[in-house]
């Protein structure tokens, strides 16, 4: 902006030259290391036959790792649980990224109202384009695996609207989903507000922080693979994805935590809106999942899909055997339950650190009180109660399963 001329706001990104430089550098590096093309090439070269005999993630990143199912699985079944973790994990990431694409644009629209914010908007544009490539990769491979192994969807879903409930397997009902949609629409109606635009990135940073930790571990499998040229393509995709996402996370931190310094102080209403957003994140991340350690899914919502996996030829359990295995894996304490609870505790600690300096958050939000209220005792109690209800519907579940099998035969 030209200091000698009248401006709509007294603020500019250049009021903080160091911050301006950090934003420009993050954009420059993301452009230079953009993994889009490598990822697109990897998806194009992907063939299930080439990678079906290897693991795609480090060993403990397998569906229901450390539970009764995992302990009693054969080596080939464990490999399958490892591959299904990839499918399930990224089907959640994909859902969050569909919403991100939309909200990046809303946020950029607000921030562009401030002088010299173009580098931030350009960063968000680049990230949006990268997310589309990420979604394409996860969707192509996830759907291919499910089609081959089950002939139906288990964790994937058809392309969805950005206002859909982002948690794929949530503790929700029609009313709650409707209310979340209203809240999201209300947020987007505030497009054009620079402070809220920056705070969307604070919430994005918070919501992706645990993902950053888990995805770093997933990316290590390819990074340390002894023969990268022949490593399974899904593992390479985890690595490319983490490379892009580390820039996205840096953008979230710069814009959500640092940029407010150069913006006018938030009003009481703006502070209220941000607090609502962080409280929503705490609610969404309250649960933890032993099925997919690292995702905050509500495990009772997974009883049905896991039942389908157990009844599939790869596991070949009958109805009674599948029901028993569900109970033993989800309702009994195990290494897997403990590991998922540990991931949740680490998430709470890292979220607290991330928002530590944000003075406009309430104490309950800064300390993540709601999210920190979950523990293995509550988790197991919730799962057992839900299992009792699930068992009540088991006859209908078995009938549907048999009907589908007959239709396919
Ligand atoms: Fe992504
Ligand atoms: Fe991202």
From TrEMBL:
Print the organism lineage: Bacteria, Pseudomonadati, Pseudomonadota, Betaproteobacteria, Neisseriales
**What's the superkingdom here?**
Bacteria
Q: Which organism is it from?
A: Chitinimonas viridis
- Protein's name according to its UniProt entry: p-aminobenzoate N-oxygenase AurF
């Amino acid at each position: 902006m030209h200091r000698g001329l009248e401006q709509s706001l007294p603020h500019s990104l250049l009021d903080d030259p160091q911050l301006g430089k950090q934003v420009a550098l993050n954009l420059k590096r993301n452009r230079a290391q953009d993994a889009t093309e490598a990822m697109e090439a990897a998806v194009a070269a992907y063939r299930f036959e080439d990678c079906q005999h290897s693991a795609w993630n480090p060993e403990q990143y397998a569906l229901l790792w450390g539970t009764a199912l995992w302990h009693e699985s054969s080596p080939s079944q464990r490999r399958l649980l490892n591959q299904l973790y990839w499918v399930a994990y990224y089907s959640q990431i994909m859902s969050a990224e569909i919403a991100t694409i939309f909200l990046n644009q809303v946020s950029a629209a607000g921030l562009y109202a401030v002088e010299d914010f173009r580098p931030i908007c350009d960063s968000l544009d680049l990230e949006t384009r990268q997310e589309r490539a990420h979604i394409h990769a996860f969707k192509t491979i996830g759907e291919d695996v499910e089609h081959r192994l089950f002939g139906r969807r288990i964790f994937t879903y058809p392309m969805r609207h950005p206002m859909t409930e982002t948690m794929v397997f949530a503790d929700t009902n029609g009313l709650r989903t409707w209310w979340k949609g209203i809240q999201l629409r209300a947020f987007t109606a505030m497009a054009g507000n620079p402070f809220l635009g920056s705070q969307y990135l604070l919430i994005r940073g918070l919501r992706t922080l645990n993902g950053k930790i888990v995805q770093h571990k997933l990316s290590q499998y390819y990074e340390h693979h002894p023969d990268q040229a022949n490593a399974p393509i899904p593992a390479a995709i985890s690595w490319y994805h983490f490379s892009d996402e580390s820039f996205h996370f840096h953008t979230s931190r710069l814009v959500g935590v640092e940029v407010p310094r150069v913006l006018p102080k938030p009003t009481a209403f703006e502070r209220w809106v941000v607090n609502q957003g962080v409280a929503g994140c705490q609610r969404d991340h309250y649960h933890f999942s032993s099925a997919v350690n690292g995702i905050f899914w509500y495990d009772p919502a997974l009883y049905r899909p896991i039942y389908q996996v157990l009844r599939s030829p790869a596991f070949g359990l009958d109805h009674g055997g599948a029901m028993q295995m569900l109970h033993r894996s989800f309702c009994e304490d195990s290494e897997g339950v403990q590991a998922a609870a540990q991931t949740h505790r680490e998430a709470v600690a890292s979220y607290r650190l991330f928002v530590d300096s944000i003075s406009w958050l309430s104490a309950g939000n800064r300390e993540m009180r709601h999210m920190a209220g979950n523990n293995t005792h509550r988790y197991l109690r919730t799962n057992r109660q839900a299992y009792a209800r699930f068992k009540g519907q088991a006859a209908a579940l078995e009938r549907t399963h048999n009907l589908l099998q007959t239709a396919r035969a």
